[in-house]
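If it is no trouble, can you show me the amino acids of a protein and the tokens describing how it folds?
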Amino acid sequence: MRLDSDLTARARIGNAALELFGSEGVGRVSIRAIAAKAGVSPALVVHHFGSKEGLRAACDQYVISLVRGDPDDPVDLADASGLAAMLEEAEPVRRYLARAFLDATPEAAALFDEIVETTQAWLDQGSAEGWARPTGDARARAALYVTWLLAPLAFGEHLSRVLGVADLHSTDATLRYSQTSLDMLTHGVFTDERLLSAWNSAAANRGTP
């Protein structure tokens, strides 16, 4: 994983685990395979991470650290160069997330929950600062927002076919579908409130809060 810019043994092992877990799934990858890809011995993998589960936990924590960002050096998502650098850095992470959520393990569920918590705090901050709209259900908005962002990972094969791209996880493909997603989130899809009004009426008739 991209813990830092150097290539220490620990960093190489983390990078190898992130990439192999993302391409093949945690259950199909052995410590020996990770060690071979990192160019170290299996014993050194165990020395640094204890076990394959320890490696998975380290990968999860790395993913969460990217979601949270560095409070001392935050990435300005409105800055093109900063956004491009972040997307390049996150390509192995996108593959890892896609595989993790398809595996549907308890660890993946915990990871999803933590991403939702972090995203809710971020969107709440946006509402307070004026760059995100207020909402009556902050929890639901955060969960749906995260699901929206992760949907291309879960439907990667189908989106690749429909969009005509060989690798949905590549930075170029991500920029393409994310641009469309952001346009929909920023400007909306519908031009009036007829669907929202009908939905609210249906909910009110059922007594749904």
